[in-house]
Fold:
Amino acid sequence: MFKLVAFFLCFVSLGASAFAGGEKLDVGARAIALGGAFTGLANSSATLFYNPAGAMLIPYREASFFHARPYGLKELDYLTFSYVEPSLLPRQYGAFGVLAKRYGFELYNEIMFGIAYANSFEKKFLYGVGLNYQRAFIKNYGSAGAIGVSVGALGLISESLLIGVAAHNLNAPTMGVSREELAQTYAVGLSYKALSNLLLVVDAEKDVRFPLNLKGGIEYRPVSSVSFRVGFSSEPSRFSGGVGAHYALLDLDYAFSTHRDLGLTHHLSVSLRFGSGSTPEAAARALAETIELAFADDSRPLKEGETLELNRATAAELMRVPKMTRQLAERILRYRAEVGKFSDVSELRQIKGIDEEKFRHFSKFFRVEEK
Structure:
């Protein structure tokens, strides 16, 4: 009896969180533990559901699987998959992603399949667009589908502060003979790295049909292998929290969220990174270096006779080398992360884009002491 009452409440009394009509559901245990505030953070493959521009922040191929059963009701099961491919093309040509979602049960269900593309302008402005096919099925009534457009942007304000904006179903798609409008939402979010292991996030999200939803969260990472998170949202009023475990190529994230009327929901995500050296430490370092490169100052070039230790040079230091580009600096950093330390300056020839002429020029500014 309780399940019938709860099921009815989910569709009638939740308002903005009702599970029907292409609603934008929070996805990913990490994001949900942070209250669903992910528009300005956007640094895992789950970003495809929040802000497609975030695909440019992901340094390695990453696939993520997510499952939740809200309030213990199997009729509300939803599953998602997301994958970001950042290295199929040269980095300057952007990153791609694919996503899928299924929600519901045999009497009513929704599915979504989508593709996304992201790129950057001058490294500090990231932009992305997604096309999502959404279909709803009702037993004995058939199914209908529509294509929605999502867009997003991220601005790197400083090495610690990011701001993101996103719009979902921007083209106002309609579904079925009744031309039911799919949920159209707009969001703006901030992420602030208060300390090297402490992150603050906040979002303001507006579904055009419902009140403004404020979201926020805190993530604390005492060691590289463990994260703790808490969060909240206002529409509906919800408290959330969770933990993440990071080992080798795997991230395992758990979250819980509470509803004042319907109780507790558990959420689980499993994420896999692909690529040599794609450990949690390397992924975090690569993300930090990507942001550092965006703010690297090349106005103080090295002088003749000055050299950098090739295995210790930071992104900012690499940009001081005359004629160094951000793309080449990024490839040098990626080589160190994936292949290992340079044993000799001559290994610079292994970097794509460094021909013999460029090698002769760059070799004057590097040395190798640490092997």
In short: The chain has two domains: 2-274, 296-367.
